[in-house]
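Our collaborator T.R. sent over the components below with a one-line note: 'Predict the complex.' Nothing else. No constraints on interfaces, no templates requested, no preferences about which chain binds where. So this is a plain run: every listed entity goes in together, and whatever single assembly comes back becomes the starting point for the next discussion.
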Amino acid sequence: MGIFLCDCGGSLKNIDFPKISGDLEKLEDVAFIDISHSLCLEEGEKAITSRILSENINRVVIAACSPELREHKFVRLLEGLRFNPSLLSLANIREQCSWTREGDVTEKATELIRMAMGKARLLQPVERESVSVNKEVLVLGGGFSGMKSALELSRLGIRTTIVEGKSTLGGKLKEVEGFYGLKTSPKQMLDSMITAIEKDNNIEVLTSAEVTRVRGEVGDFDITIRGGRKEFSLSFGAIIFATGYRTEILPQDFELKPGGNIISQLDLVEMLRAPEKLKRRPETIGFILDVCDENSRLPTLSSLNNALAVREKLGSEVYVFCKNLKVDSEGAEELYREARNRGVVFLKFDEPPQIYCEDGRVAIEAKDVLLGEEVVLPCDLLVAEERALPPEGTKGLSSMLNIGTDFQGFYQDENVHLYSAASARKGMFFVGGCRGNLDLRRALTDIASAVMGSYSLLALGEAVVEVEKVRVDPEKCRACLTCIRVCPHGAVQLVRLDTEKEVAQIYDLACDGCGICSALCPAKAIDFKGYADEQILAEVEAMGETNERR
Amino acid sequence: MIIAERKPFEEIKNMIVGYKRILVVGCRTCVTICWAGGEKEVGILSSQLRLQSSRNGDELSILEATVERQCEKEMVTQELGDKVQDIEAILSMGCGVGVQTIAEIYEEKPVFPALNTTFVGMPEKEGLWIETCGACGDCFLDRTGGICPVVRCAKGLLNGPCGGTRRGGKCEIDPEKDCAWVLIYRRLEKQGRLDLMRKYYEAKNYRKVKRPGKIEALEA
Amino acid sequence: MAKPFRETLKKKDFIVTAEAGPVKGSNVTNMIEHIELLKDKVDGLNVTDNQSAVMRYPSLGTCLLVKEHGGEPILQITCRDRNRLAIQADLLFAYSRGIDNVLCLTGDSVDVGDHKEAKPVFDLDSVQLIHLVHSLNSGKDMVGNELDGGVDYCIGASATPSADPIEPQLIKFDKKLDAGVDFVQTQAVYDLDELKRFMEHTRRMDGKVKILAGIVLLVGARMAMWMNDNVPGIFVPQHFIDEMAEAPKGKGVSRGIEIAGRLVRQIKKEKICDGVHIMAIGREERVPDILEAAGI
Amino acid sequence: MNVDNNKIVAFCCANSAYQAADKAGKMRLCYPDNVRIIRVPCAGRVDVVHILKAFEKGAAGVLVMGCQEGACQHLTGNTRAKERLKYAGDLLKEVGIDRERVKMVNLAPDMAQKFICEIEVMMEKIKEA
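Returned assembly:
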């Protein structure tokens, strides 16, 4: 075992390095102890290189500053010298020892190094290998997000397959009248994307098809798709979920039953497409916002769009009842100002307004906060606010993949650590509506990170993986399924060995190295190289030794 | 599979009073799967015993071993063979069957059970096991849509729920537990086989298996 | 001497039975007081068998007392405490001493009683017990051996009209009716609509079986809530609990009597059932006041 | 305890608590010498056997320091650790060791002060006994 001590340019005054090297040199499995001033710089690296090439050591212990800073540097150095970096053990004698108090801390430093040596003795080599991965990506859902992801990926040379439940692509694009603030109209955008997809031989489209089963892991997902009557399974490297959202007027939000003169945004868009077909032009149209869902931006955007369209095409009076308009997304502020210039009246309420029928028209009664008095406003049509909900089948799919959903049922309630579109399961990305990002611009950011994520994962056609860093010993494994159930990354599968025995097996590429499974395994069958039980206990043991000696 | 639960430490401690060298033996099958007596639990119990002895100063040496299956004589002797010589007492973390197999092989050494074997059951979710079979020797499941009333009904009734079912179809003795007969009713109704539940069933033959049971394979 | 219960069932159009809870000990004096008080006011006097699995003076013993004092006892047998041999033996003995009414019950589980570690028997269940009594009535024991001297029991069963879900209970109740019973004494009933729906179900028996609605006297709001959680098969609706809560201090029992009276009067007036079975658990001395409040 | 000293073993999750410890060092916040920090990939990696072994080897207190609730890189690591520590506490209580001697601490990578004060709290506990 070779030991390198670094006194950080002589700054660690309260550690007596010669004493430490004197104490530890006596141990028979210590080949040498070098004291250097700066292991992180050129000079230190040369010292380590020469030592390792000349001595035949099978373990390296480096006592220096925090592993968080230098570990990756030492690992790359050792890799360069053909020395397996998993046989390196670090002791943090700067931040967690020398800097923790004034007086002499040599004894604590010695003990920390002893702990690192205890662990080093039991380290096992972990080989790095590259595993081939399937470069194809599955895109679930053919709405704006789905098509955009497929197009972006094919630009980077990745083949994708879009699976869309309905018979045509487009999803929500078909239901939106105009994007004020964006030059192109949704219709043109939809047509241009569809033609681009048809021309692009990197993208294959399967319409009125659905995924019935997802098995396997990142790099080799085995997906069963049912289209029409036939069912077939394909293999993909990654999956991008772009299943979008659906809107629904929830009766309990309004005491009145929708219908008659209470319509949805979609009905309004249909009316605006063919204004001439209307029997009677509605004089006044009211919009209601912020009754059932205060934080979603979608109602504000779609109401502003449609209000402007109404003013332009029908010229009828437009009143918008809202608590507070969410205009923080791009272009929404001018949209609001333009609506006001065009004569759309905005009324701000505190308690939700009362809505009731009054001789064939819908009356909205609310206390306007700005005017400070009750306002009763009969309108011909009331565009009710819709609650955005996840598409049907989300619940089934999410339990099949064991992916969490948030309280509204949208995917990806996971935490801040994972960058926006990724999920706990490597190789699965969620973009756009299905994770609650309902407006275009937010969806674009998701798409960008999902595309980059899957590209960096699959582009080379192979991925470097630490082979069997966390390994299930088939002899000891009782297939009690605990690890399969607890793994947050779904990286453990039940496999049938050639000896017909069924055991758990960890898929190295999907494993994120957290060790929850090895802690819970009742049969002690899961060995986690680098943090195995023996190694952790060795550190505890080393701490114990100094007790006896004192 | 057999489900067991570790005895409270107090009980175990009082069993092994006076013995200085103890062998703690785990088992790698049922009790591992139900987190009661596997290699991990052997480590935990041994650690507790060592802590206990070091706290009140009496030196106690604990040896740990785990047998593939404690109910097989060959496996016990193969695993424990040499470890047993200078042992004063054996603490078995197998189910009741394991304890008795070890006791039979090493008759001269006292063998103590560290677990309470509770029932034959299945995992409802990871870490939670429920009793579903009472090994009564006369299976009734064909007439109840696959839900056993003999064990999952607290009173083991063969004819329909008792009068004490709680609101929501819960059992009389435990508001958390579903009444087996309400479950049976719902399943048979789903299958359209409610006639099975309407049929009257004679008093059960409780001596179908002469206790203690013995089964001899024909070729033996 | 009270008329045999079997005749009263046929003749009277509104039958009233009450329940005498045996003492937890051998001092039978106040049991005898209850018997003296009630024997002429009711058509039959049930004697509970270790009610709620709480060990008490045996039901058989109390029935003998009732007989001696000229009352018409109704023996209650649960399947919790005796296996099929003991039950048949008790039935033979009871009949030989003139007791010829039996209420066949499954029995509360030991977990709700005061001997929670006991080994519950449940060799039979209530439906199998009814079949057993029938075989004894036909002069044979359960396995078919001839009896030297048979029995002729008037058989009773119980039911829970306010159970939720109700369908499984109705299936079991059908089994009891198919097995053949002469009278039914239901669990405590407070929601008369539930009782009406339950009675719909029994119309097919067209009067051959007399149904008595169970009335449990409420003593206090806390006791009502306690019963909801701990006494199997009893569900006191919230409005009754509130009504009891409003009762001024110390007046709980009289408010309970007034409620019980109201229920009985309504059942009688609307002819919902063929009678009532009054269970004044631990307050047998107030049964006459309930009858009076009910105008009987 | 072979030699009763007041060693505290802190299993620190590499994603949060270990960095908090480093930050405490960078800020030169002093804390007593008897703390031994063992780096683990996630709080969920620490098993009951490790905790008991730590006490067996003379530790007087064990802290398992993981990410904050809901911010765990591996989603359930810290919640599992919390449950496990309750179990470990029961085991210790059975053996006569005060269950306060083992504690779950949730830290964000920059919570140096909280890291220090949790150690001081544990030191008080140990001194009391």
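Summary for T.R.: The first helix of chain B runs from residue 9 to 15.
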